[in-house]
Design a protein that fits this description.
Shape: flat
CATH topology of the largest domain: Aminopeptidase
Number of helices: 12
Helix content: 25-40%
Strand order of the largest sheet: 5-7-6-14-8-13-12-11-10-9
Structural class: alpha+beta
Number of domains: 3
Radius of gyration: 26 Å
CATH architecture of the largest domain: 3-Layer(aba) Sandwich
Strand content: 25-35%
Largest sheet: 10 strands, mixed
CATH superfamily of the largest domain: Gcn5-related N-acetyltransferase (GNAT)
Number of strands: 14
Length: 372
């Protein structure tokens, strides 16, 4: 196979030419200009040549931000100039096909906003765990012994990962058990069986109220600034202050966005809420915002079951996100790993997953260890 490939990022007008080298039995076509990624005009296309083109395209996309900068990358799509491809009997040098990146996937690459938020969250989680930020990049498990914080005294163990290394904060005396039962992969501390065993060991070693392992939580931060979203006819969005939100806490409808009535500390942290008001004048969806410390403002969401599926969640979350960014804070959106509906809301509002949390909690006074 003979091939010459020139990869470019350019804003030239669309031009298509055809050239036929004197010594080549196959026409060498050129396609240059705005388009959807790579286009090979030679037909039929040898498999080895197609895979080589895709390999080159993947390499270009991996270095696109470095080569041309983010503003250019988000405005134009990569193009590949294919000058010549001839039939070849040589086998492909690749063992697997390299995935093709669409323009949508290019836009999904990390943005300046995402990078800024990610750096803030890493610093905040390192402070919460009492470790260095580099611990999240070790591809290993880092165990920290520390007493539960006054902010969350029921939090007996706290696990965090951004994907390239995990940190586990445990109560004094529990680190030796973790070392003896350390799974061979750092991320396996998030497995339910490990958290359940850790809960039993924590209770046996330290005593106190019963402990239980809690399921995984996914954390999202904004990748793009969400646009203001339209509501169905008859619905409107209202920005409510902390005092205006207080009556809604007694309805046991908006626990995720406002907290339970018996959580006074949550009420103290609540800053604002963005409520969707229905045609009858009552709040039917609410995105509450509270201060999680270290510059993080968290968004909690509730939608009344009777109006789910009407598209009320995303406008409330988008409004809350824009307000948080205007305050110079970092918006975060967290939800359970099994809450797929909530994942879709986050993605629809321009959020992308960043980190995973797990925990062991002591039972609140007079409550089951499985209730928080």
């Amino acid at each position: 196979m003979e091939a010459r490939i020139d990869t470019r990022l350019t804003a030239l007008p669309s031009v298509t030419t055809t050239a036929k080298p004197a010594d080549s039995p196959v026409a060498g076509n050129v396609n240059e200009g705005p388009g959807s990624s790579v286009k090979i005009l030679n037909q039929p296309v040898p498999l080895a040549f197609r895979e080589s083109v895709r390999y080159g395209e993947q390499s270009l996309l991996a270095r696109a931000r470095e080569l041309v900068g983010e503003q250019v990358l988000t405005k134009f799509h990569p193009r590949v100039l294919v000058l010549h491809a001839a039939e070849s009997s040589h086998p492909s040098p690749l063992n697997a096909r390299v995935p093709h990146n669409s323009p949508q996937e290019v836009r999904a690459m990390p943005s300046a906003l995402f990078d800024r938020c990610a750096a803030a969250i890493r610093a905040a989680e390192a402070a919460e765990c009492g470790c260095d930020i580099d611990a999240f990049e070790t591809n290993a498990l880092t165990v920290i012994e520390a007493r539960p914080s006054a902010k969350e005294p029921e939090l007996a163990a706290y696990a965090v990962t951004f994907g390239a290394g995990s940190v586990l904060r445990v109560e004094p005396g529990v680190a030796a058990w973790v070392a003896a039962h350390n799974p061979n992969k750092h991320f396996r501390i998030f497995q339910p069986f490990f958290l359940a065993d850790l809960a039993a060991a924590t209770q046996a070693i330290t005593g106190g109220r019963p402990c239980s392992g809690h399921g995984l939580t996914l954390g999202f931060v904004p990748h793009t600034l969400p646009e203001a979203r339209a509501l169905p006819p008859g619905y409107r969005l209202a920005h409510l202050g902390a005092r205006e939100l207080a009556p809604y806490r007694d309805q046991y409808v908006f626990e995720n966005s406002l907290g339970d009535p018996d959580e006074p500390e949550r009420l103290e942290k609540t800053l604002a809420g963005f409520a969707v008001i229905g045609p009858w004048g009552e709040a039917v969806a609410l995105a509450g915002v509270w201060d999680e410390g270290h510059g993080r403002y968290e968004i909690g969401l509730d939608v009344r079951r009777a109006v789910r599926g009407l598209g009320l969640a995303a406008p409330a979350v988008a409004a809350a996100t824009r307000w948080i960014l205007a305050q110079g804070r970092t918006p975060i959106y967290t939800c359970g790993a099994t809450n797929v509906r909530s994942h879709r809301v986050a993605l629809a509002c321009g959020y992308r997953p960043l980190w995973t949390l797990g925990s062991v909690r002591r039972a609140p006074e007079g409550k089951s260890p499985y209730l928080r």
